[in-house]
Amino acid sequence: MATKRGKGKLSQIAVQITGKGPDAYKDVDWKALSDEEARNLEKKNSLAWKVLSNTQTQTLQDLTVEELEIKLAEIMELPRPDIELSQASLLDYYVSGFWWAKEQGFNVQQLSGFFTLLHTLLENIKEHKMPLADNLTEYKKLLAGVGTEDNEVNGGLDFFDIKQAKLITDFLQMTLFQHHKMYEFLFHHERKEEIVGVEPVHFGPDMQLVVETLPAADVPHPPPLEEGLEEAIYLCHLATPPSSPTPEMDGNEEEKKGDTEGEGVTGAEDEEKASGDPVDLLAEVTAEDVKTVFSQVSKELFAGLQTDVQRKLKERESEIISRINKIHRIADT
User: Fold this and answer.
1) From CA 87, how far away is CA 79, in angstroms rounded?
2) Which of 79, 145, 180, 271 is most buried as measured by Cβ atoms within 10 A of its Cβ?
3) Residue 153: helix, strand or coil by DSSP?
4) Angstrom distance (rounded) from CA 29 to CA 224
5) Is the link from the previous residue into 247 a cis peptide, with omega within 30 of 0?
6) Maximum average pLDDT range among 36-45, 99-108, 256-265, 314-323
7) Coil, strand, or helix at residue 209?
8) Measured over all CA atoms, what is the biggest interatomic distance in the chain, rounded to whole angstroms?
């Protein structure tokens, strides 16, 4: 490799790259190269800088996930990922793939080549309608030359070593190849579009979308369902019991009721005054009465128990007698 100065800064121009794998480019300072110089440095059929240039890759490498998503949507010309499912799926896969490669410690050249690989495999599904078997064959062709010393064989990814190629294969298996049918359905099956609700605006030709939302959880509206209770629990513990209706009475019935209540209160007061003490309900109960009650209750409770015990004793007695007879028969023989 030779270097030369041009236009006030150090530029590196490769005269010849020898060897395979990451070590062949270990002396290259990618930050010091322009996009054109980085492309001239690559071997024939290399996948680096095909989709992401040297400058773009270095910029994306320093972004956060949120910033990376916005920038990739701009670079890959995906203007509507928020409402277009296919664009959202592509952008999500590009972002997750680039971030995974960054976590693996890939350099700028490897990041660009890996991103080209993702783009190529997805385009095989989207544009060329390749089934899984054909897409796997294309991926195998792109891996040609990795880990070998033959400079004539190069599928475009020879700047990776064997260990990195295995990591990439595992990533593609878990993300793309495992869900190949899903991506085929996404790109080649039209989804029915439904209009929720549109009505014209009174003061212009524009249209407005009407969306109904749930009311606030305030009275008289009920609370959200996740805060609700079963109806049985609510009626048993929370609901206010309805008040019983009071029957309507005419004037004569009210007067009679008042007279009856007055007489009852007067009679009770007279009895209390006459006796002087409250009435004791157990005063006339004798000891014999208590014994009689306990005797009747015990007979009712223990009658069944006594019968059950006697039955079990008889069964046990019969079992023991049969065993004794069996022993005698054995002894006699």
Assistant:
1) 8
2) 145
3) coil
4) 60
5) no
6) 99-108
7) strand
8) 133
User: For the whole model, what pTM was predicted?
Assistant: 0.56
Alpha-carbon distances, residue 135 vs 94, 140, 172, 270, 330 (angstroms):
18, 9, 11, 108, 87
| DSSP conformation letters of 17-64 | --SSSGGGGTT--GGGS-HHHHHHHSPTT--TTSSS-HHHHHHHHTS-
CA–CA distance, 13 with 147 (Å, rounded to integer): 25
Query: Is the pLDDT assigned to residue 229 strictly greater than 60?
Result: yes
Structure tokens at 222: 């009920």
Torsion from C-alpha of 321, 325, 331, 333, nearest 10 degrees: -170
Helix (H) or strand (E) holding 70: helix 65-75
* Mean pLDDT, all residues of the chain: 79
Return the bridge partners of 11, or none: 4
CA distance 150 to 43: 13
Closest CA to 35 of 19, 51, 20: 51
The answer to whether residues 72 and 60 touch, using CB atoms and an 8 Å cutoff, is yes
Token pair, residue 61, equals: 């490498």
Beta bridge partners of 13: 2
- Position with higher pLDDT, 252 vs 125: 125
Helix axes 180-188, 85-103, angle to 10 degrees: 140
Residue 22: which of 171, 167, 163, 158 has the closest Cα? 158
Yes or no: say if 158 and 147 are a contact pair by the CB < 8 Å rule. Answer: no
Please, which residues have CB within 8 angstroms of residue 30's CB and are 6 or more apart in sequence? 38, 54, 58, 107, 108, 109
